[in-house]
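DM from R.C. (forwarded with permission)

"hey, sorry to bug you on a friday — could you get me a structure for this? deadline for the figure draft is monday and I only need the backbone to look sensible"
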Amino acid sequence: MANIAERTTTGARARLRPGVVTGADYLALLDACREGGYALPAVNVVGTSSANAVLEAAAHNRSDVIVQLSNGGARFFAGEGIADAMEARVLGAVSAALHVHTVAAAYGVCVVLHTDHADRALLPWVEGLLGRGEEHARLTGRPLFSSHMLDLSAEPLEANIAECARVLRRMAPLGMGLEIELGVTGGEEDGVGHEVEDAADNAHLYTQPEDVLRAWEALSPIGQVTIAAAFGNVHGVYAPGNVRLRPEILRASQQAVAARAGGGGPRPLSLVFHGGSGSEKAKIREAVSHGVWKMNIDTDTQFAFAEAVGRYVRENEAAFRHQLDPATGRPTKKAYDPRRWLRAGEKGIAARLDEAFADLGAAGRSLAA
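My reply, with the result:
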């Protein structure tokens, strides 16, 4: 089984088979984004409807995409009726991965499968998924997921790096990448996060470039690492003025690593933008210009789903109150059929993602052959 560090092609020239990418194909996609100056939306899903909506939007925009699960999303995918929450997180993430593996190629795009924030309390979730990934790789030659994320940003830098190195040593032989967080992203993502009181003046929300360099020096010799460096970004949508994005921090981080690496080009890092919902479009473009290859978008897609479903319910109110329309006496089953209002929600997600693909410069740039 190839180690992920082995690059067999240059991302800018790669043509890949559609479906879930791992190993060298995952690296080729990273390279293509960084070298091409565009990024992919990373969308948290909670069931087959939201996963399918993301894939449909990617196909419509002829773009590759990142499908990811938070720990709560994974648990919901398995079902809230499973008493053991950690078991449900593992089973739900496995179930979601198998679904995406099954259908992704039919959409004709490349898909990165990823898990979102996992702090120290959620390490058993990641370890459990790695065990399932190792089993899957023995059977198929590739892991279940393209990558996982560890968010140990609340811990001292050395402890963060040391734990990430331990996990990455297990992931790299599978052809998987690791996303880490340095600094803190304000707000909360499924129970993992930080307060955003006085966010615009909170120094903890701005990662120091020298910390990025230390993490890169420690982890890049082990395997592929992508870095979520905080530059004032927060999860959720906040009032104007409460959040001050400073993408120049990303530029300074790239410069620090490029100076140490030598010959790796001006953007050697694959950076991640957390808390993309509600961000200014100019700041999004600036962040992408500094090597951001992945922007998380969750709050906006949740709202897009809910708004579309709510509108459908309002337009078909009688169907959600009566099985026979009081005004006509006719059955209302066709209107309250879950496929109708779930489909409305899927279309809401897809429409919001049309905007995201355009903002990130990803539309029309799929590597799928």
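R.C.: lifesaver. The chain has one domain: 18-303.
me: no worries. The radius of gyration is 21 Å.
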